[in-house]
């Protein structure tokens, strides 16, 4: 009889182990590589294109030509907002004219446009606002207009509304030289990579924007194109014999991240490149700004800038440019001097760069060039004249850029948070990392902040609970709240911890398999909430809420790289620490507002979309998230009456209006939920007396919940002071799950599923307990 019972028990245990292991792959040999999804399509994003509009057309003096743009050369037939056009113009005789493009349904603006003379072709790349009929006008005006020969080539466009595919987004930079006097042979080319130079990221870039300057002993023509293509339609810069010429270029990168500059002439050319911005690809870890075109307007001048002098100018609030919320202003710069030389434009408050924005290569003749100028912190730009003679300068605004905001409006400035107290008994964060090279199982990693501000990191072999070793990694700093922790693309851990100064500090591991950490990095921006850290493609991103209740994101610049600056996302009126989980098309973010309503949005590359309110007035704490195959998300939250409530996305991705209550249990803190290896949703929570309780689905995807039961046996005296945190892990026996909490003495207790006990239980899981090794004493 006893032998028969043993056989039955063994069969039950094996059945449960098999059930828990269903559908769970073995531990991976290394960290996974993922590609971030594209940002949502939006108005004002840049779409690269190359199309010839005019080829040697003649425009009579003081005449105006209407040119159809929509539908030409593969451009969209409708919805065009801006077309970036390179104008190459040459006059006759004593020409001193200006070719002025503007919307077909607008009136002639009082601006300079693309300036020309008779000696050769001058280039000026301009963003031109398109009229409602899909056309633009080009007027031939100026001091001494003559008949002008015009070549006009489109280099890209933006749309008035979201297109069918996402475009690129612009980030202005402080100018920096990336090529310095390189020779391009006659009929030859020069290929270079701007990535990682002058503020351009090392990845996630589709086009780089730079001023191309060249000189040659005889006339020649230069063209800029991706490294994997030949010469394209049009010329980007025409060089005259014996002087320097320049033009703004939007250089599209090849698959290898490189740009080629070709020399179409029979004489060698020397070139310089000064980068002033870049377009982030739709899959970049952080989106830039979107363009808003203007009917061109004079915003400055003419003013004289003294020899070796500077002039500070505030373009915001002028010529249709908003007074706030602008990341860059598109300015056409007209210059003239009794001598030859150039001016440079850069943000105020910065050291003058050794760069060139636009030159005046012919004495007593006007020349023009374009720049998307980045304002300084005070909203001003500096016009610097490093030349030995005074120069007359005029500025015309053609466009401006605003941050990509997705489904939220531009938020108000952040309110600084005061120094923060250390939060008592914040929960532990725990995960099992990917298996490192030469191992089959990943280590279990723990991190928490104790009540005196120490940040403790622990590492454990999944087959040996007693192998756990704790290390204080806070140094001389004090931290508060549950730290964010995630594994980056190369398998190293990253921590985002809330310093008591209010800033979030980040710290990477030096190597994935040793207790060695890199330096702490303080990312200046006081936050009221703690940070949540999550994977986003091949990068990490942290989320937090500031003292004004606004949601922010802190993305890694590149895979395994450093972090940039915090990005305001919007969603004002929030409170508490947000929750986030990576899904197939981005990161789904959740946060409570001050009324306890849950808000959600989809984050992709610094932009929010699919913003929604999920209701639930009076919700408390931090919600817990479960992701199912296909990316569907279920939420668990603590309601106003302390019961646990839940809702799940439907097949279309929408959340229902109603919340479902999970039993009658009353929680004293936030729940923690997961998808077990058996494919069932499980949830744990802490009661007011410190006892730990468990519930879960009766069957996979049933949405029907077992009665809440204590996860502790009657003789277990452990009293949890922190909320439990559930996690899945794999050891040599296969995949399983458990949860961890700490008591008033900061001792950690782990509860893991007892396969045999759960097989015998009819309506609840059974857990085994283990007291984990104690942390080291405070020093």
TrEMBL record:
**Short name of one Pfam family:** DUF8189
**InterPro entries recorded:** PLL-like_beta-prop (IPR058502)
Q: Which domain of life is it from?
A: Bacteria
The family database entries (SUPFAM superfamilies) matched by this protein are listed as: Fucose-specific lectin
Task: Determine if Signal is one of this entry's keywords.
Answer: yes
What keywords tag this UniProt record?
Signal
**Signal sequence span per UniProt?**
1-29
Where is the PLL-like beta propeller domain positioned along the sequence? 469-660
Any idea what this protein is called?
A: PLL-like beta propeller domain-containing protein
Q: Highest lineage ranks of the organism?
A: Bacteria, Bacillati, Actinomycetota, Actinomycetes, Streptosporangiales
